[in-house]
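Duplicate of #3305? Posting structure anyway:
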């Protein structure tokens, strides 16, 4: 008999995880419910020997797959035939392989959501739950369309953020390299030229400090660069752990200017995922669990998990979100009104649209301000270096 892993909440909202044997997923859910628990997630346990290692597939390809599958199903093509058509015409090796495996599993009796669940590197949790809700509620085509639209919009958002941040990062790296080269290669060349002024105590303090700093940089840079690379690598590995991720996520939202942007985009992702899941019939507790991970920020995710526990005990969503003091007051107020009017799904998506538009305006302003600021910093550094070099030269020429 297959073994299933489950996560559920009890009557007081505590999260409980465990496993049980059942003939089907529906029977496993029934068993969990019979024990007085509210199931959040029930999924089959796949033995390690049978697990399939499939590489990632780009978001654009997945969005196209969801959209094409929805079109085929709406056109009356059976699910198995639709999967085979998409598998045969796919040009991506990973997607082609996983579609072939899903076709075989569905042919053997698994649901589409159960088959997708076996390949988490290809299908996200949100897509799986929306497909499950659509299949059970009889609106699979609409669910797939929503998944396609959401996947594409999130990929566009990621690309826009990356594109907006790319130029300042490249510029900062380029300016840093220029300054290091000037200090380590150009400035120390003047040390011997100013020996006479140094012996007469006529060398400007600015020049003396700059030359000493340049010579020390010649020693520090060869040693420092490997240490910095090793440190960044260690920080990157630590950031993947729960404690490190929580630390960096807290630092992100506390940054002077960028913190509000990080927080805004995370809240927008939460609202869009939660609204989309609720609109497609996914239960509120399961939707909140998925949305907590979708924020991309552990601090906000913890606040949402706390809200989930309160909702399990009968409270509404707005109150625990307000108590966390992380979510903007305007967002909490709109959620509160939406809960009273029973329009939470549509209001959440409207909030996400509004937050993203505001965040993009702020990001554009910040990028436009950052570019000239970095150029001013570079100009100031170069001006100090030029003054420190030229002042003793002028003094030497006046003595001659």
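Output from current build:
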């Amino acid at each position: 008999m297959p073994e299933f892993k489950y996560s559920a909440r009890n009557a007081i909202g505590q999260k409980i995880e465990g496993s049980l044997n059942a003939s089907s997923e529906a029977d496993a859910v029934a068993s969990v419910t019979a024990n007085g628990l509210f199931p959040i997630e029930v999924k089959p346990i796949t033995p390690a020997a049978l697990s399939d290692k499939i590489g990632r597939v780009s978001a654009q390809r997945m969005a196209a797959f969801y959209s094409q599958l929805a079109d085929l199903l709406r056109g009356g093509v059976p699910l198995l035939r639709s999967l085979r058509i998409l598998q045969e015409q796919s040009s991506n090796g990973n997607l082609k392989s996983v579609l072939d495996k899903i076709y075989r599993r569905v042919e053997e009796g698994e649901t589409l959501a159960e088959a997708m669940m076996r390949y988490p590197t290809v299908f996200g949790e949100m897509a799986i739950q929306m497909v499950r809700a659509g299949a059970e509620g009889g609106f699979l085509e609409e669910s797939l369309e929503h998944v396609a639209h959401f996947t594409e919009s999130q990929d566009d958002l990621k690309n826009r953020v990356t594109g907006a941040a790319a130029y300042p990062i490249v510029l900062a790296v380029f300016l840093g390299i220029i300054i290091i080269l000037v200090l380590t290669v150009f400035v120390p060349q003047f040390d011997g030229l100013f020996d006479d002024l140094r012996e007469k105590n006529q060398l400007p303090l600015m020049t003396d400090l700059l030359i000493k700093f340049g010579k020390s940089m010649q020693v520090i840079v060869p040693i420092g660069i490997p240490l910095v690379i090793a440190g960044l690598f260690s920080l990157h590995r630590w950031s993947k752990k729960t404690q490190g991720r929580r630390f960096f996520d807290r630092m992100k939202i506390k940054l002077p200017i960028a913190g509000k942007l990080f927080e805004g985009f995370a809240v927008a992702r939460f609202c869009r995922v939660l609204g989309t899941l609720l609109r497609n019939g996914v239960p509120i507790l399961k939707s909140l669990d998925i949305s907590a991970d979708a924020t991309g920020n552990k601090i906000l995710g913890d606040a949402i998990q706390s809200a989930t526990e309160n909702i399990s005990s009968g409270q509404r969503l707005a109150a625990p979100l307000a108590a966390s003091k992380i979510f903007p007051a305007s967002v909490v107020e709109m959620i509160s009104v939406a809960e009273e009017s029973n329009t939470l799904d549509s209001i959440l998506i409207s909030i996400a649209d509004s937050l993203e538009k505001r965040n993009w305006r702020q990001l554009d302003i910040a990028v436009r301000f950052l570019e000239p600021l970095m150029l001013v910093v570079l100009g100031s550094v170069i001006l100090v270096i030029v003054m420190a070099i030229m002042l003793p030269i002028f003094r030497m020429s006046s003595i001659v």
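Confirmed duplicate; merging threads. The chain has a mean pLDDT of 81. The CA atoms of residues 13 and 309 lie 5 Å apart.
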